[in-house]
Amino acid sequence: MKETPLSNCERRFLLRAIEEKKRLDGRQTYDYRNIKISFGTDYGCCIVELGKTRVLGQVSCELVSPKLNRATEGLANTCGPTFIKS
C-alpha cells in the first residue's frame, strides 16, 4: 500500500491532540472499544468487531508437491484485506 504523506497542518493537529491527550471520538487516552470475535462456519474464517468497525478475516492454504527441478523452493499466495460496510 502506498503511503500518503501528512500535510504540515495535519501533522501539527495530530501532535497537538497527542500532547493534549485528546481523541476525535471523545475517548480518553487509555479507553478502549469493545471487541468481539466471531468464528465463521467455514474453517479459517472470522469476523472481528471493534466498536462499530467490522473486519472479515479468512485464510486458506493448499499443500502441493514442489517441482522436481526446484525441490527446495516454495510458493505463498496472499490477497488483500476485505472490508465489510455496516
From TrEMBL:
<dbReference type="GO" id="GO:0016075">
    <property type="term" value="P:rRNA catabolic process"/>
</dbReference>
<dbReference type="GO" id="GO:0034476">
    <property type="term" value="P:U5 snRNA 3'-end processing"/>
</dbReference>
<dbReference type="GO" id="GO:0071038">
    <property type="term" value="P:TRAMP-dependent tRNA surveillance pathway"/>
</dbReference>
<protein>
    <submittedName>
        <fullName>Exosome component 9</fullName>
    </submittedName>
</protein>
<dbReference type="GO" id="GO:0035925">
    <property type="term" value="F:mRNA 3'-UTR AU-rich region binding"/>
</dbReference>
<dbReference type="GO" id="GO:0000176">
    <property type="term" value="C:nuclear exosome (RNase complex)"/>
</dbReference>
<dbReference type="GO" id="GO:0000177">
    <property type="term" value="C:cytoplasmic exosome (RNase complex)"/>
</dbReference>
<dbReference type="GO" id="GO:0034473">
    <property type="term" value="P:U1 snRNA 3'-end processing"/>
</dbReference>
<dbReference type="InterPro" id="IPR027408">
    <property type="entry name" value="PNPase/RNase_PH_dom_sf"/>
</dbReference>
<dbReference type="GO" id="GO:0034475">
    <property type="term" value="P:U4 snRNA 3'-end processing"/>
</dbReference>
<keyword id="KW-0963">Cytoplasm</keyword>
<dbReference type="GO" id="GO:0000467">
    <property type="term" value="P:exonucleolytic trimming to generate mature 3'-end of 5.8S rRNA from tricistronic rRNA transcript (SSU-rRNA, 5.8S rRNA, LSU-rRNA)"/>
</dbReference>
<dbReference type="InterPro" id="IPR050590">
    <property type="entry name" value="Exosome_comp_Rrp42_subfam"/>
</dbReference>
<keyword id="KW-0698">rRNA processing</keyword>
<dbReference type="GO" id="GO:0071028">
    <property type="term" value="P:nuclear mRNA surveillance"/>
</dbReference>
<dbReference type="GO" id="GO:0071035">
    <property type="term" value="P:nuclear polyadenylation-dependent rRNA catabolic process"/>
</dbReference>
<dbReference type="InterPro" id="IPR020568">
    <property type="entry name" value="Ribosomal_Su5_D2-typ_SF"/>
</dbReference>
<comment type="similarity">
    <text>Belongs to the RNase PH family.</text>
</comment>
